[in-house]
Write the structure tokens for this entry.
Amino acid sequence: MKTIHTPTTRFQSILRNLEVAGRTTWRLARTGARTLSRMPWPVLLVVAVVLAALFTIVPIVLALFVGLLLLKFLVIAIFGREPRRIKHYTTEQ
């Protein structure tokens, strides 16, 4: 049997999902804050350096990948791609 959703029940289910997401986010934030407060400063320094490296290197790598891929497609569109010639080898015995 099909369940008929009225707009109020859909809205209530959306609100319920948002509440769950909010509680989960808040719990994650509290856990992260607790973890950060327990870390010694050398570990925080290493974490900060690693995060900074990731945040700077990953976008550069992705941008280079997309740029080179677009360049490849552009070169293929301009110059075309000829089919490869297959070499036939004959073995004489």
